[in-house]
Amino acid sequence: EAVEEYTAALESAEPAQLDRMVTLFNFRVFAPRAVLLPVIDANHHHGQITYIQTLLGDGEYHFDMESAGRFFARPSEAE
Fold first, then answer.
1. How far is CA 48 from the centre of its chain?
2. Model-level pTM?
């Protein structure tokens, strides 16, 4: 139910509302990217999993250090 309400709110947003930066938790985020915070959180935890894999002997680097820039920058700034 919460997902449906969240989706409806996102779909009803006016373009002018989305073309701005918003402040969340002491940092600024391009508004459309703010809806990606669940994905960003998963990416963060993936980094923790990668660290554990490294401790267990997996030598391949799995974490994408450039991902934060792609998530937080305006599309024109990320390219």
1. 16
2. 0.43
